[in-house]
Request: fold
Amino acid sequence: MTEPPPDFRRLACPVPVTTGPTVQMAHGGGGRMSKALTDRVFLPAFRNEALAALHDGATLERPAGRIAFTTDTYVVRPIFFPGGDIGSLAVHGTVNDLAMCGARPLALSTGYLLEEGFPLADLERVVASMRDAALRVGVPIVTGDTKVVDRGKGDGVYVNTAGIGVVPDGVEIAPARVRAGDRVLLSGGIALHGIAILSVREGLAFEAAIESDSAPLHDLVAAVLAAGGPGVHVMRDPTRGGVASATNELAFAAGVGMVLDERAVPVREDVRGACELLGLDPLYVANEGKLLAIVAPDVADAVLAAMRGHPLGREAAVVGEVTRGPAGRVTVRSRVGGTRLLDMMSGEQLPRIC
Amino acid sequence: MTEPPPDFRRLACPVPVTTGPTVQMAHGGGGRMSKALTDRVFLPAFRNEALAALHDGATLERPAGRIAFTTDTYVVRPIFFPGGDIGSLAVHGTVNDLAMCGARPLALSTGYLLEEGFPLADLERVVASMRDAALRVGVPIVTGDTKVVDRGKGDGVYVNTAGIGVVPDGVEIAPARVRAGDRVLLSGGIALHGIAILSVREGLAFEAAIESDSAPLHDLVAAVLAAGGPGVHVMRDPTRGGVASATNELAFAAGVGMVLDERAVPVREDVRGACELLGLDPLYVANEGKLLAIVAPDVADAVLAAMRGHPLGREAAVVGEVTRGPAGRVTVRSRVGGTRLLDMMSGEQLPRIC
Reply:
């Protein structure tokens, strides 16, 4: 009933993966300590058949549709924030990029880039969060890689996730399908993620904590596609650069114009207040659990109803319309009347937001 | 015939992606400067239909077989080295991980992690090298992401590549298929990559430059599979940790033992000399263009002949045999007689080798 003495523990685990509290260069060297880190931290968390094969890559069954493929690297600071952390964000972000292609997520990969000295306890917390997020989505993490860089050449942890998904036959989501007259739908209140991150960084306290909206959108997308069918022309999650950048990118890629109605864009009152305090336009602030859908006018009502019937889309709204042009030009009818050009952000509003 | 004055150039390109010589934080912000970097550097280099869709993910046709999926992050220093650079290495390494699953490469993704202040000219050189390597393989880079971190939180450039490939029906490459009596084949002379990197770092000059063996192995693998058919049980490219770590990992995963013959392992004379000078065992030094194949004894001669008939396998050799056990135990009959345990590397021999 007594604790084993320290030297017994050391005998039980000759590799110092758990006795040392931080990441060491040798954890990335491809030798015994790399294997120990994989065996102790990554494999138990991400347990699945493909990963258990311990091969350099995973092999998956022949998929029943076209393949969607995406990647993102996550560098958010702080790594733990209200409503999430870099691990859950890395799963949600990549699942969402797949969902924006109309794809059901099939598998994720993960590449950890660790700085020497990063606490193993923090790594384990990030990995556990990633595991939980993937389990909730129902997508396995089937292959991965870990590299360690010397102290001062990284920032604790960066995470890359790539994802593959299956696009069901008949689903065709592409900017080229957008037409003048299409409606622009937004799934809910904007600017939560950016404000959550910034309020931690700036040490701001609001009456109620503003949490990131980080969430997986694959299920909301399934509802949108079921309701709108081929009338769903394109979708985009307005992350870095916010709704302004996402609509500009879509207008540019589709060769159309867009007019948004600022009064129709849902913004929570406390978020609007925080934006005013910080001098930010909510249209430019990052989201991690919202989507823009551009749909044919005849399915707009059905898609809006489907969004509002989903837990992640209760505040969905029609926020604008596609115009013939000029290509790439997005204007907004402002809250105070009049219209203004909604340009892409030219600098960087919030560095390392995702 | 005179140079346009500076302000004219600024008018022609209001976004300072080319007038500033280094990466800035705003290049990763998701706004106008991110778009400019993508438009000027990445899109022209990686030009292809899926990428041109400018979506968050790429969509590919339904593949004719099972899917292989892999990822790796590259942190090699220096980023330019004899025989390659971080860009070509990132393509070759991920193509090789797919090839080790028996897969033909279908598409790559790329995630750039840039440090503020990194010279854009170096970025363009890395991107061009990545483009050339992908073109030689014939694999498109279909989706990507760029993040920028503040000065002192990175090291110029890190590159993640994920890859998907197609495993033809009938090909079944897995550690579980390895049997006692199988032959261990090695495709050529070892330790080139590690010694090439280390000689630059240490400022060593040898009579002839030792260049990295960085090369894509998909075509050599196709030759191996054509010759050995289902007799090819598993393949592995001995990168970080070298032949010693790769054989240990395979023996562990397959639950078998292995005996290698050190005299049969090809090592170039100048490489052996460099290893002696540096106090390194070539069996532990990284390779980036070699493969180990474990094959049934009845196809060993045919696979060896196929390797030797390929430009990347001219010095191929049978270097060992699989034994019943103990599971995970690799021994080597040394050059001077006697056998020794070939353990996994326990620390890190060469940090940031890939």
Observations:
- Chain B touches chain A through 89 residues (CB under 8 Å).
